[in-house]
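Ticket closed. Logging final result for Acid-shock protein.
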Amino acid sequence: MNDEKETAMKHKRFAAVVLAAALWLTGCGGAAAPAAPANSGAAAKSTASTAVQTAQKERITDQFALEKNVSGVWGEEEVQYISVHVPQLECDSPDAVSLNKDLAAIYAADFREYEAYEEAGQPGGEYPQIGVGWDAYWYGDCVSLVVRSRYGGTAPWRYSGWCFDFATGQQITVAEMLQRMGLDPDTVQEQVQRQAMQAFDREMAQGAYYEGLRLGGELSQMRMDTLEYNELENLCLLLPQQDQLVLRGKYSCEEGWQQLDMEIPLTSAAPADPPVLTDTYDGVQVQLEGTQAAITLSPAPKTDQWGDIGIRVEQTRTYPILGAYNEYVDVCIGEQEDGFFRPVVYLLTKDGVVEYVDVLRCLLFGDAMICQDPIYFANNGVALELCGSEVNLRRADGSVLELAPLSAEWSAQEIPYSVIGSYNYTDETGWSWMDLTSDGSVQMGMQDNSRMDQGDAAYLGVVPEGVVLGISTDAGLNFVAAFKMDLYNENLTMTMIAGQNPFAEGETQLQMNRSYG
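Final structure:
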C-alpha cells in the first residue's frame, strides 16, 4: 500500500511539473514565457526543458487528418496520394475557436468526403500529389502557424500564415508578432518590399519578359502587385532557427507567382557607412546614401528656363525620390534633347539595370520626384558616363547604350489596367466623378458636378500606396496621386502625393466607387 501511495505521489509531482511548464508556456491565461524562438513543426533546436517542449507541441494538434491513396479525386481517374493535416489550436478563447473554424472551412471541407472512399492502389509518379500540412514557429507564448497546401501533382505549394498569442488567447497580426521580437514593423515592411521588388526586377532583366508587357500597362501592374502582395499581413513568418527570421512572400512574373523567402536580421549589428553617390548638372543635384535618395533643384540659368512653362525654381529645394527600391552603384545626370532643358537622373543598380527620374516630366504634374520603372533592356551595365549632354551606359561586354532614347521610349506606356474605368465619390458636399482611359485621357466632374475638367494622365511609377499618375487638366489643375484598386470591394483608393485634392479639399486619401453607369 505504501509503495502504491509513493508511486501515486510521484505521478502527481510529475504531472504538476508538466502542468506548471504548460501554464508557463501555454496560454489562454498562462504567464508569458521568455522570448525565445523555437520551431515546433520541425526538429528545431531548443534550450527549453523536455516538459516545456512537450507542452509547446501539445498546444497545436490535428483537427483533421487523412493519409490515403484514392482514385476519382475531383474527377481524375488515376490514383492519387492524399496527405492532409489541418491544424487546431488547443485553446478555448473566442479567437482560437474562430481561427479553428476558419482552418476547417479552408482546408478540411474539400477532403472529408474521401474518408469514406476505398483505399486504392499505389499512385504513379512523385507524391504526395495533393496535400495540406502545417508548421508552427514559436516565439515565447506566440506562434506563427504556417499552412501549406497543394491541389495537384505539378502545382507549387501555397502558403498562408496566422499568428496567435497563447498567453492572451488572441490572434495577433504579423506586425504585432514582430513587435514582440523587438523589431519595428515599418522598418521590416520597407526591407521586405525592397527585397521583393529587387527580385522582380532581376527576374525581368534576366528573362526578357517585358517585351509584350510594357505598352499595355501589364508590367507596371505586376510591379504594383508585387509591392501589394508583400505587405506584412500577406506574409508568412518563419523562425527556422533561434536567430533567424524569414518572411515568406512572392513576386509576380510572366509564369504567375514565384515564392520568395526574405531573411530579416533579428540582431542589429553596427551598420557600415553606406556609400554616397552624387552628381550635379546645371542646377540639378542628386544624392544617394544607403536607402535614402534625393534630388535637389537650385536656381540656375538652365532651371530659370522653366519659368516660361510656369515652373519656377526660386530657392533651393530637395525632393525625396519615391519608388526607388534597389541598391545603386552609380548615378549620372544628363539631358533628353527635345529643344528644352530636360534633365534626367539615371541610376545604375547593383544588378546592372538602369532606372531613371525624368525631372521635368515630374515637375509638370507637381512637386514629386518619382523613379520610373527600370529599363530592363538597358542591363548588364557597369558604369554610367556623361557624353556631351547625354548619358551612356557602359556594359560588361564593352558595348555602349545611349540612354536618352531608351528612357523616352520607356515612358510611352498605357495606364495600368487595374485603375482604368469610371469612379464616383460622394460626401456631404455632393457628388464627384472621374474617368480614366488606357491612353491617358482623363475627365473629372467636381463640386457636385458643377465643374468639369478634361486632361491627361501619365504613368510615373509605383509606390506602396499604389500606381502613381500625374494628372494635368486644361483648366490648369495639376496633381500627383497614387491609385490602388480593391478588386473585391471595387473601391479605388486615391492617395495624394503632390498638389491639391480636386475632389475633397485638404483630404490626403479618399475612396471612390467603381461606376458602371
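Confidence is low (pLDDT under 50) at residues 1-26, 29-51. No further action required.
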